[in-house]
Amino acid sequence: MRALSFLLSAALVVLGGCGKPEPPPEPVRSVRTIEVGSESAGLVLEYAGEVRPHTESRLGFRVGGKLVERPVGLGDRVKAGQVLARLDPQDLRLGQDAAQAALAAARANLEQTEADFKRFRELREQGFISSAEMERRETALRSAQAQHRQAMAQAQAQGNQAEYSVLRSDVAGVVTAVDSEPGMVVAAGTPVVRLAHDGPREVWFSVPEDKVELVRRLRSDNVPLEVRLWSDRERALQARVEEVAAAADPATRTYLVKANLGRTDLPLGQTASVRIAVPAAARAIKLPLAAVFEQQGRSAVWVYEPATSTVRATPVQVAGAEGNMVLVSGGLQPGQRVVVAGVHTLSPGQKVKLWGADSVPASQRPAAPPTAPASAAAAPAQRGSGQ
């Protein structure tokens, strides 16, 4: 009986030693925090845009034909009156010759009819012909005069058609696209080249549906926008909204906006950044972007509780972004401390400690120890080197 009791006691001791040990306490993490304050924060919206010409024309011939020459190419600068392209003028010249021949025939017929009318008028004065015959001669003369005017108009039109075989630039500018190549047969009005006129430049950008009314108010109030080229971020330009699309793009659901930059030497097609400053409607709190995380579909931050040295998740209302800062319009009170680094490694109620002097208010920082004189600081080093 004693042996059985001894075995049971030993088994209980062994089973007790095999039990799961208690987990070690969670380490106290160091966190960087900032003390939030309320300020009047205006939202700045930024959109990507493109520098475009104020006027861009698609130039084509007024007549159809075979394109035989295009002396300009993509990116070439042209002057007013410069030749851009030529058509084969053979058929047009034949039509011009035919019109000139018709004009000569109408002129000869008119001269003959005028001579006949003069003779018949003399005969009528002498009483050799009737009044009816005289009226017929007058009608023939008016018909010959009308035919002569018609032939003159046709000859002039055919002459213009022959001149239309040469495409010239009406204004100075730069060729931005080429739509037809030599050897192609083009119809009247078919674009051959696209020409950007010298003069004002515009920046085109698109805005979402919820910002259209804001841009339209900027247009009505004539408020300038800030434009910076991506190739030269230090150079700031001003532009004023001229046009806002009445309908959204069916693919992107955004509205196209055109802002006038005025006369400038900016190269066409450059990418630009358009900034729209939205006036502050209320006081807000600015936080670094890294301080905000998502919890159950809502934006939240970790608030430090100094009484317990723990953190708690607090939902916040985000009003917008300004660079790397987030504008918080609700959920926080001035004076609270918010964790701004390592937010994804924390859990509710976790023990933390403030890291670095930046996380401690200036009033609570310990005073720095007095600096020892240079001679006193050097003395231990000299004694150590002598040992």
From TrEMBL:
<dbReference type="Pfam" id="PF25917">
    <property type="entry name" value="BSH_RND"/>
</dbReference>
<dbReference type="Pfam" id="PF25967">
    <property type="entry name" value="RND-MFP_C"/>
</dbReference>
<feature type="domain" description="Multidrug resistance protein MdtA-like C-terminal permuted SH3">
    <location>
        <begin position="284"/>
        <end position="343"/>
    </location>
</feature>
<feature type="coiled-coil region">
    <location>
        <begin position="96"/>
        <end position="154"/>
    </location>
</feature>
<feature type="region of interest" description="Disordered">
    <location>
        <begin position="356"/>
        <end position="387"/>
    </location>
</feature>
<dbReference type="InterPro" id="IPR058627">
    <property type="entry name" value="MdtA-like_C"/>
</dbReference>
<feature type="domain" description="Multidrug resistance protein MdtA-like barrel-sandwich hybrid">
    <location>
        <begin position="61"/>
        <end position="191"/>
    </location>
</feature>
<dbReference type="InterPro" id="IPR058625">
    <property type="entry name" value="MdtA-like_BSH"/>
</dbReference>
<keyword id="KW-0813">Transport</keyword>
<protein>
    <submittedName>
        <fullName>Efflux RND transporter periplasmic adaptor subunit</fullName>
    </submittedName>
</protein>
<keyword id="KW-0175">Coiled coil</keyword>
<comment type="similarity">
    <text>Belongs to the membrane fusion protein (MFP) (TC 8.A.1) family.</text>
</comment>
<feature type="compositionally biased region" description="Low complexity">
    <location>
        <begin position="373"/>
        <end position="387"/>
    </location>
</feature>
<dbReference type="InterPro" id="IPR006143">
    <property type="entry name" value="RND_pump_MFP"/>
</dbReference>
